[in-house]
């Protein structure tokens, strides 16, 4: 299952493969896409793969880091 996150200010990140990282409940998530969202100007998109180990965890903290700078944490409920 994938989780899509939307943000602004992402598109200027470095090209390094680890320049965008995401954790959920302290678990590192594989980032499959991190670039501009193709439909809306100025909107960026991050797609991450949710591992089966997070199933049923309930409310978890999502932390996005871009080029070493952490964004404000968010919360998501995983059923």
Can you give a write-up of this model?
It is a single chain. The chain is mainly beta and 79 residues long. It is 0% helix and 53% strand. It has no helices and 8 strands. The protein has strands at 2-7, 20-24, 27-29, 31-36, 44-49, 58-66, 69-70, 74-78. The strands form 2 sheets. Strands 2, 3, 6, 7 and 8 form a 5-stranded antiparallel sheet that branches. Strand 6 (58-66) and strand 7 form a beta hairpin. It is globular and about 35 Å long. The model has no long low-confidence stretch (mean pLDDT 91).
Based on the model shown, name its key terms.
mainly beta, 8 strands, globular, three-stranded antiparallel sheet, five-stranded antiparallel sheet, 79 residues
Question: Which helices and strands occur, and which strands form pairs?
Answer:
Blueprint: E1 2-7, E2 20-24, E3 27-29, E4 31-36, E5 44-49, E6 58-66, E7 69-70, E8 74-78
Antiparallel strand pairs: 1-5, 2-3, 2-6, 4-5, 6-7, 6-8
Mean pLDDT: 91
- Secondary structure class reads mainly beta
What characterizes the major β-sheet? 5 strands, antiparallel
Query: From the structure provided, what is the oligomeric state, counting identical versus distinct chains?
Result: single chain
Question: Which term fits the overall shape?
Answer: globular
Q: So how many helices? A: 0
Determine the N-to-C terminus distance: 12 Å
Question: Care to count the β-strands?
Answer: 8
Query: Which percent band covers the strand fraction?
Result: over 45%
Helical fraction: under 10%
Contiguous uncertain segments of 5+ residues: none
Q: State the order of secondary-structure elements, H for helix, E for strand.
A: EEEEEEEE
Radius of gyration: 12 Å
């Amino acid at each position: 299952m994938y989780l899509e996150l939307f943000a602004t200010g992402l598109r200027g990140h470095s090209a390094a493969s680890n320049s965008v990282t995401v954790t959920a409940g302290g678990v590192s998530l594989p980032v499959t896409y991190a670039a501009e969202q193709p439909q809306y100007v100025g909107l960026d998109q991050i797609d991450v793969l949710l591992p089966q180990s997070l199933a049923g965890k309930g409310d978890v903290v999502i932390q996005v880091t871009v080029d070493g700078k952490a964004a404000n944490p968010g919360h998501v409920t995983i059923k």
